[in-house]
Amino acid sequence: MAQLTYRPWRDGDDHVLLQLWGDAEGAAAEQFRGAFGPDADGAQQGAAAGDGGAHDGAGSAPGAWRRCVVAEDQGIPVAAGVVYASALHPQRHWAYVEVARDHRRQGVGTELLRRLREAAEASPSGVAALRSRVTVGTPGADFAAARGFSTLQRSRHVVVRPGSLKLPVFGDGEDSGDFPLVEDLATGSVELSDAVARYYTEINDWDPPAPISVGRAQQLFLSDAAGAHGAVVLRAPAESAFGSGVAPSKRKGRLRAFAVSYAAPSGAAADDPSEVLLGHEVRLDAEDARDAVRGLLALIAYQHPVSLELDDSMAALRATVEPLLAAGAAEQVGADTLTVGD
């Protein structure tokens, strides 16, 4: 093999590389391919394109700091690497490397990663640490492990079958005052946005996010651009400000759990699982959080399958879903995805 040369990204590189690489080795790789592009010098105000789900995902937004390096063999692009800033998780940069199959195990990926690390050290934020996402059992996962990346988080894509959970009894009108305990809520609700922001912060304490305002939460998780389609919440019974024994005032009970559904992709069948972000009020104790999540999941998955992204950090959701997986009432789709980093 002739000596490879390295250069910045140029327009048209994606067409050559995608033809050479073929199909992506997993969902994470497919997302990261969208991050390749010309170098950008924006500050970290840019958000990742995948910020609308349970993760600060792959892909970069206009204005975000980015460096992209391409490896050429006799003038033909055969590999590329990209590193870019994340506004949502500013303590590490996202990084991704992909090498054509016939050029692997020849040090090309290692050299690209070395150059990405140098670029990160010179970034405006001064952040040098990197993170990436890999699919278990792929060459990308093996490469990351061999280069010293450790697992920060495991994520699974799970589908819960209809009727897998018995519907709970949510209470009657006497318990809930004039307000139902289960309520459809507008995705623009300030109450919902605040709950989602605090939940995201809690389940990502392994890689602490920047502060998430109500407006930012709406943009990332609850907007039309994020694909949010609707939301339902589970509430506690309304309480009187004057204590027990006194009829509740005209106010709703506190929010316990929420489920945000996302629009189905084009061409999806009517019986395809609905993608849902399911979480809870973080101030609940562990038992109450498990009970609230289980009850709301039982409701939304009563007649239609539900698709969930299940992180190991989602303790309340895992407590409900993992027994379903063990019993065959839910199934994991695809291999585990790992977020790995320095």
Automatic annotation (TrEMBL):
<dbReference type="Pfam" id="PF13508">
    <property type="entry name" value="Acetyltransf_7"/>
</dbReference>
<dbReference type="InterPro" id="IPR016181">
    <property type="entry name" value="Acyl_CoA_acyltransferase"/>
</dbReference>
<feature type="region of interest" description="Disordered">
    <location>
        <begin position="35"/>
        <end position="61"/>
    </location>
</feature>
<dbReference type="InterPro" id="IPR000182">
    <property type="entry name" value="GNAT_dom"/>
</dbReference>
<feature type="domain" description="N-acetyltransferase">
    <location>
        <begin position="4"/>
        <end position="168"/>
    </location>
</feature>
<feature type="compositionally biased region" description="Low complexity">
    <location>
        <begin position="35"/>
        <end position="48"/>
    </location>
</feature>
<protein>
    <recommendedName>
        <fullName>N-acetyltransferase domain-containing protein</fullName>
    </recommendedName>
</protein>
